[in-house]
Amino acid sequence: MYKGYDAVVGNAANDDVFKCVSMYMDGIWDEERTLKELRYFKKNDQIVFLTQEMIDDTVKFIESYEVKR
Fold first, then answer.
1. Bridge partners, residue 49, by sequence
2. pTM of the model
3. Residue 12: phi, psi to the nearest 5?
4. Range of the domain at 21
5. Is residue 68 part of a domain?
6. How many domains is the chain built from?
7. Would you say residue 27 lies in a domain?
8. For 43-56, how does the pLDDT look when each residue is reduced to its tens digit (9 = 90+)?
């Protein structure tokens, strides 16, 4: 499906989304209720780099810092 692409951009499901899907899959919620609940979740975008060339051309190191406990 994604072969031939260097990167894919889209929504990422978080724990809240998985909980809704589980409620539906377990038969607790119907489709209408599940979709109603999902509408309220903030969308989280993700970028997946699929080729090393895309990573080399796109991702740049800016800085680092130490985090102390």
1. 7
2. 0.48
3. -110, 135
4. 7-58
5. no
6. 1
7. yes
8. 778 888 999 999 99
